[in-house]
Amino acid sequence: MLVLARKVEEEIRIGDQVIVRVLAIKDGQVKLGIEAPRSLRVFRGELYEQALRQNEAAARVERSAAAEAAAKLTQLRIGSADKEP
To answer: From the centroid of its chain, how far is CA 27?
Structure first.
C-alpha cells in the first residue's frame, strides 16, 4: 500500500485518467474530489463491500432455487412415468 500525505488542494494522480484531490479537512474528516472517466465506476469502500455481499447472497439463493426447481421437475417426470401404461 502506498501511503501519501497531502494538504488541501493537493492531488494524487492514478494513471493518466484519474485525479484524487483533497478538498477539505475538518473535524477528523477528509473530503476528496475524484475526477475519472464516466466509464470507470467509483464506489465508497463500504458500499462496494455491501454490494459484493448482496451479490453473493443472491447467487446462493438462485442456486438453491434452481436446485429446488430441478428436484420438482424430477419428481414430476417420475410421477408421470408411473402413470404411463
So the answer is: 30
